Amino acid sequence: MCDVCVCVCVWRVCVCVCVSQVCVLDEIQMIADRARGWAWTRALLGLPTHELHVCGDPSVLPLLEQLVADCGDELKVGQLI
Predict the structure, then answer these.
(1) Which helix (H) or strand (E) holds 78?
(2) pLDDT tens-digit profile of 1-55?
(3) What one-character-per-residue DSSP string does 6-74 give?
(4) 36, 30 in Cβ contact below 8 A?
(5) Among residues 25, 49, 50, which one has the least CA distance to residue 37?
(6) What is the DSSP letter of 3?
(7) What CATH fold (topology level) applies to the domain 11-71?
(8) Whole-model pTM?
(9) Which of 19, 27, 34, 75 could form a cystine bridge with 48, CB 3.0-4.6 A?
């Protein structure tokens, strides 16, 4: 296990090999894109992290709420200005 784990990647090749305390997944609205949404879904459901922060357009919130509920996880919604 890593003492400090930093993983920076682009959406197509997001592969992290250690568990991190916090990950940030940007442009989460792309999860609804028919051609590229698979990558955001894979990252959202598969990143090895204790806490995941997602950033993006709030229009995707209903989809996120459903995915999180299906997984039995907790979703906290906040807004940064």
Answers:
(1) none
(2) 556 666 666 656 666 667 888 888 889 999 999 998 998 898 888 888 888 889 9
(3) -----GGG----S-EEEEEE--GGGGG-TTTHHHHHHHHHH--EEEEEE-S-GGGHHHHHHHHHHHT--
(4) yes
(5) 25
(6) S
(7) Rossmann fold (3.40.50)
(8) 0.77
(9) 19
